[in-house]
Write a structure and sequence with these properties.
The protein is an alpha/beta fold. The chain is built from seven helices and 14 strands. This is Carbon-nitrogen family hydrolase.
Length: 266
């Protein structure tokens, strides 16, 4: 299986239309890959809060249309990162889009854990409520986004839903880059699954991005890692390693659910 991660430089000097066209061209250039992944909120910027409301789009908007066409032209599964989704009946959402090689929108995922605490995404965006897994010819994909990496219970739930390959687009800042690689490896080891984590480069909303997109195997081995700038990272991986790792080191069989601390009574 060949995976290509497009670590886009999100530059506020570049228009959204120009970046959309450039991203589509980069996707088309990955013909021969099986899965192509873009970062989180690459069109507007993961920290460009002031641009989100005006730049929000429906699931059949211009970005979705461009990504569907690019996936079909390249003949790839495309995780198109995430957009700011405009729900006509609700708030805006941070929504990931997954396309088949035929250019069909197979699933979307609204980010469950919103970053920002008392401002930014946590305040202006709605929270997703649905776990999303997608069966493919190379294994079942589980979808998560950026800040989700900090919540192992989400990944355990996705594991229980059959996930073998986690796909995680992000706009993770440079100042917490060590956390990015740590959590990607931890989730891979915990769930004995591949983690494909695609970050942004550049600076948006005044926040320098961390880059360093990476692919981690079920043993926690980093198969490939990008640098800090814009880059297309391509790696060959064997999906069969998931079953092998789980058979050779069957730690998941030893899970004990519902354990509670003993209650001391006077």
């Amino acid at each position: 299986m060949r995976v290509s991660l497009i670590q886009l430089d999100v530059d506020p000097a570049e228009s959204a239309a120009a970046r959309r066209a450039r991203a589509a061209a980069l996707v088309r250039a990955q013909q021969g890959s099986d899965l192509v992944v873009l970062p989180e909120l690459w069109l507007l910027g993961g920290f460009a809060y002031e641009a989100w409301s005006d730049g929000a789009e429906p699931l059949d908007g211009p970005t979705a249309e461009a990504m569907a066409a690019a996936a079909k032209d390249a003949g790839v599964w495309l995780h198109a990162g995430s957009i700011v989704e405009r729900d006509p009946d609700g708030p805006i959402y941070n929504t990931s889009l997954l396309y088949s090689p035929a250019g069909e929108l197979v699933r979307s995922y609204r980010k469950i854990h919103r970053f920002g605490f008392d401002h930014g995404e946590a305040v202006v965006m709605g929270a997703g409520t649905e776990l999303v897994t997608v069966p493919t010819e190379f294994g079942t994909l589980g979808l998560a986004t950026c800040y989700d990496l900090r919540f192992p219970e989400l990944f355990r739930a996705l594991l229980d839903a059959g996930t073998e390959i986690f796909v995680v687009p992000a706009a993770w800042p440079a100042r917490r880059r060590e956390h990015w690689t740590l959590f990607a490896r931890a989730r891979a080891v915990e769930e004995q699954a591949f983690v494909i984590a695609c970050n942004t480069a550049g600076t948006h909303g005044g926040v320098e991005q961390g880059g360093h997109s990476l692919v981690v195997d079920p043993w926690g081995v980093v198969l490939a890692e990008a640098g800090p700038g814009e880059q297309v990272l391509t790696v060959e991986l064997d999906p069969g390693v998931v079953a092998t790792a789980r058979a050779e080191f069957p730690v998941l069989r030893d899970r004990l659910m519902g354990i509670q601390a003993p209650i001391e009574r006077a």
